[in-house]
Amino acid sequence: MDIAEARALHDKTPVIDLHADTAKLMDRLGYDIAARHRPPVLRRLSYAGHVDLPRLQDGGVSAQVFGMWTVPYPQTGCAASVHRQLDALRRAAAENPGQLRRALTARDIRESHDEGRLAALSGIEGAQALEGDLDNIAAFARRGVRFIGLLHFTKNQLGSPAMGVRGKGGGLTDFGRDAVCEMNRAGVIVDLAHIDRDGFMDAVAISSDPVMVTHTGASGAHRHWRNVDDDQLRAVARKGGCAGVIFAPRFLGGEGIEAVCDHIVHILEVAGEDTPALGSDFDGFVRPARGLEDVSKLPALTAALGARGVPPRILEKIVGENALRVIGDVPPRLAEAGG
Fold it and tell me: Using CA atoms, how far apart are residues 113 and 108, in angstroms rounded to an integer?
């Protein structure tokens, strides 16, 4: 498969990236998502500025999940930070209605794909944003938040991260278990990126809905604390979920686009064709793999997977249909499109 064939596949099926941190840049730095940005000349400096509307269109992307991350110390203020990022995304949609719409459902994404507009979905990276209050889950859900990552790089009331500022581990706390149940009630997808293994398995067992790992590597392709193992991948698959592969070389074990392919193909082999998805972590202050310097390059990944022998039917699942299925299987139960 060449780039032209890959781009044609992107035109045919909704392409979804499950994690980019661009909303923080919009909120704190005034980053204009409607303008085309140039990546830095020196690759070692290209840690942000990977996503904007012109390059999303170039890459044939139909939906972008924007992860709202917060600085956990002091925790007070994390919820307000998320609301500011949601406000920034809402303003961008209001200012660019012909290019961008805020989205909640699988139907919204398919409609946006047909219209040639980007469907913008909202997630939260790290449940320190709840500030210890389960009512914040409903408050965020009403504003259109569709994903909450239970952990980020620091311990919080729900449990411990895979690495970083660690607690004692031991799985989810009682508050964490209650939070998963409340997320199910609100129609918010449980995101298991960054959480320690015990907490990961607890959340899969507790959740009545499919779960996601929005941005991760596979430890079976490259052993690293940030990546999830084969049993975790199979647990996600049994729950009807999916796992988005990150584009950061430090977690992939290789610098180029082929390393991303290695992780996607490993997930295919271990957990089946309904499990792998895309979770770039663009604008997350990570340096992307060579060949995937920004979101416009996504057809190159599709072409590389095709060259590996992955057939078009499965490519459609990887680039979007698997994520779309999970979003459809966990409908928003409290969200209001105008939030």
Answer: 9
Does residue 205 lie in a domain region? Answer: yes
Q: Is residue 119 within 8 Å of 57, Cβ to Cβ?
A: no
pLDDT at 242 > cutoff 50:
yes
Using DSSP's 3-state secondary structure scheme, residue 295 falls into helix
The label of the residue with tokens 């980053």 reads: 31
At residue 102, the 3 state secondary structure works out as: strand
Residue 21: exposure state from Cβ atoms within 10 A (0-12, 13-18, ≥19):
buried
- Rounded distance, CA 50 to CA 159, Å? 31
* Region 153-167 average pLDDT: 82
| pTM given for the model | 0.94
Q: 122 - beta bridge partners? A: 66, 145
Which conformational region is residue 161 in: left (phi greater than 0), alpha (psi within -120 to 50 degrees), or beta? beta
Report CA 336 to chain centroid distance, whole Å.
21
Task: Please give the pLDDT value at position 337.
Answer: 46
**What is the distance between the alpha carbons of residues 158 and 104, in angstroms, rounded to a whole number?**
25
pLDDT at 267 over 50: yes
Cβ(20)–Cβ(51) under 8 Å?
Answer: yes
pLDDT tens figures, 87-100 = 999 999 999 999 99
Residue 272 is assigned to a structural domain of this protein: yes
How many domains, the chain?
Answer: 1
Question: What torsion, rounded to 10 degrees, do the Cα atoms 224, 229, 233, 234 define?
Answer: 170
Domain assignment present for 334:
no
Tokens 């409290």 locate to 334
- Residue 166: pLDDT band with limits 50, 70, 90: low
For the chain, the straight-line distance linking the first and the last C-alpha, in angstroms and rounded, comes to 42
Report in angstroms the alpha-carbon separations of 219 from 160, 181, 243.
19, 28, 13
Range of the domain at 183: 3-329
Instruction: Report DSSP state, residue 284.
Output: S
The string of pLDDT tens digits covering residues 34-78 is 999 887 644 555 778 899 999 999 999 999 999 999 988 777 899
User: Which CATH number do you get for residue 250?
Assistant: 3.20.20.140
Instruction: Give me the amino acid identity at 11.
Output: D
